[in-house]
Amino acid sequence: MVYFVRTAGPRDVDQVHKLLIETWHSSYDAIYGVEAVDKLLRSWNSPSAIKERIGRKGGEYIVADSGKDIGGMGFAAMYPKMAKTAMLHQLYVRPSCQNEGVGRDIFAELEGCFPDAEIVRVEVALPNIRAQSFYQRLGFVEVDRMEEWGAPNSGLPAVIMEKRLALV
Predict the structure, then answer these.
(1) Which keywords are on file for this protein (predicted)?
(2) What is the model's pTM?
(3) What is the DSSP string of 92-132?
């Protein structure tokens, strides 16, 4: 199936929410357990959280859309704690669409959305080796590790990865 990357809007909230439920369970159930994943989904990826991110000023929220379904999503914004750094907060691809270039296309679009950025940074759950490998293929390298992925007191360790952007 062919997917086109476009800016997300309020009408996408329900489909994105379903995509995140499917993708998170596929990615994290074996790592954290179903109950913990359900809890994280409710707090981090609720429909209201998705709607807020879509409308966030200075952020870019995009989806890969086939015209029939949403195959992936990505959200990034400039990182206020580090100059000239864009933070990739989310990039998830429906399991049935993985390994088809959807994630690469989403990232390519996001990468061009921040002309003042010199670096793109992402935090990846430490046990999520598949995601780390994906980002390495895009040119990211590990720069640090942290004990609290996603939120304070999460207890979820993460790898911090960065990609230096080409200056035009």
Answers:
(1) Acyltransferase, Transferase
(2) 0.92
(3) EE-GGGTTTTHHHHHHHHHHTT-TT-SEEEEEEETT-HHHH
